[in-house]
Automatic annotation (TrEMBL):
Protein name: Citrate synthase
SUPFAM superfamilies from the UniProt entry: Citrate synthase (SSF48256)
PROSITE patterns for the chain: CITRATE_SYNTHASE
Similarity comment: family membership: Belongs to the citrate synthase family.
GO biological process terms, semicolon-separated: tricarboxylic acid cycle
Source organism superkingdom: Bacteria
Entry keywords, A to Z: Transferase, Tricarboxylic acid cycle
Active site: 289, 346
Gene3D superfamilies according to UniProt: 2.20.28.60, Citrate Synthase, domain 1, Cytochrome P450-Terp, domain 2
Record pathway: Carbohydrate metabolism; tricarboxylic acid cycle; isocitrate from oxaloacetate: step 1/2
Gene from which the chain derives: gltA
Length: 396
């Protein structure tokens, strides 16, 4: 027999510490997908899947959105654990705004790809390029400086990727604009104040909702890669590769494809019946979550943002009508209710992005832009952890 300590998090959830189990008994645990395994201790993000709760540094996600905090203020919160003073925010934002443009070698990397290359492959190459560019100095300077640099430069990089695949010249950053406003400027070179105001607000909220999400597949990959001592940008390249998968960051792209396949609201009932027939192999994209067994709190917020954006831009979007009808039917069907299949954040986010002019192929890069803040915060927390060691899972 061996006694295993039981730990409790700040919310009273119990965790059995099995660190000494193998050494004491020679017995390993078997947990495919790590659904019952806590691989680290983290103070950044908390999720209660049964209650549909998501918090950053103790702040409920809905409260953060309703407080009208900017994305960069949330980035600061993730990095430092508290909101900045007025002076600290000015200094942080000044540093962010001065670093939007990546090194010339990254511009050359982007241009080296064919215009039909998937944007995520270009982004992964750019992260690898930054890993090389900053490798020598990163290990002897303030590591958090590079986390800030990553958040800043990914905005410029993704805008450049968009300009490249659409055969347009790169646009210089405008340091007088907010983070999201500058991103729109570098993407579209649009001078319309009204469009920028509407879209920047929507993007800020989308970025906040996607900033971090506990130990998901890509974040766990960033931590695992970082445990070897690899520099931040190498870890971000690994995280981006994981994010690209259709079951993770590529899900909102899959949702758009599904809605386009349905074509019109009147076809929703027939589509739902096909989903319920296991022989068809058709999946209901944008529903269900590995952690949430209730309504994804981010989905409620982004659904309202979707409606607001379409209203403010004075456009109608047939995909929204299909999505609303699909949600309405699915939430009244016992098949989906019994399986805890509720809309997740991916269900509506793609509609918003498509409405503001983001190509479907670019969706996952915007997810990566937002999640870079969380990846970087998690990486920094890991390397400062006294229990930090190389990850080495076992097998059966």
């Amino acid at each position: 027999k061996v006694k295993l300590p039981v730990l409790c998090d700040t919310n009273g959830n119990k965790v059995v510490d099995i660190t000494s189990l193998y050494k004491s008994t020679g017995i390993l645990t078997y947990d495919p997908g790590f659904m019952s395994t806590a691989a680290c201790e983290s103070k950044i993000t908390f999720i209660d899947g049964s209650k549909g709760i998501l918090c950053y540094r103790g702040y409920n996600i809905a409260d953060l959105v309703n407080s009208n905090k900017s994305f960069i203020e949330i980035v600061y919160l993730l990095f430092y654990g508290s909101f900045p003073s007025v002076d600290d925010f000015k200094d942080f934002m000044l540093q962010i705004s001065q670093e939007y443009m990546p090194p010339k070698m990254i511009c050359d990397v982007i241009k080296s790809f064919s215009q039909d290359a998937h944007p995520m492959t270009i982004l992964m190459a750019c992260f690898s390029g930054l890993a090389s560019y900053y490798n020598n100095q990163q290990h002897c300077e303030n590591e958090l400086k590079y986390a800030r640099l990553a958040v800043s430069q990914i905005a410029g990089i993704i805008a450049m990727i968009y300009r490249h695949i659409t055969d347009q010249d790169f646009i210089q950053a405008n340091t007088e604009l907010s983070y999201s406003e500058n991103f729109i400027h570098m993407m579209f070179d649009i001078s319309s104040y009204e469009f920028t105001k509407i879209v920047s607000k929507a993007l800020d909220i989308i970025f906040i909702l996607h900033a971090d999400h506990e130990q998901n597949a890509s974040t766990a990959t960033v931590r695992l890669t970082g445990s070897t001592g690899a520099n931040l940008f190498a870890c971000l390249a690994a995280g981006a590769a994981t994010l690209w998968g259709p079951a993770h960051g590529g899900a909102n792209e899959a949702v758009i494809n599904m809605l386009m396949e349905i074509e019109q609201p009147s076809n929703v009932k027939q589509f739902v019946q096909k989903v319920k027939d296991k022989n068809n192999g058709i999946r209901l994209m944008g529903f269900g979550h590995r952690v949430y067994k209730n309504y994804d709190p981010r989905a409620k917020i982004i659904c309202e943002i979707c409606k607001e954006v379409l209203k403010d831009l004075k456009v109608s979007h047939p995909l929204l009508e299909i999505a609303l009808e699909l949600e309405n039917i699915a939430l009244q069907d016992s098949y989906f209710i019994e399986r805890n299949l509720y809309p997740n954040v991916d269900f509506y986010s793609g509609i918003v992005l498509k409405a503001i002019g983001i190509p479907v192929s670019m969706f996952t890069t915007l997810f990566a832009l937002a999640r870079t803040s969380g990846w970087s915060a998690q990486w920094y927390e890991m390397i400062k952890d006294k229990n930090y060691k190389i990850c080495r899972p076992r097998q059966l």
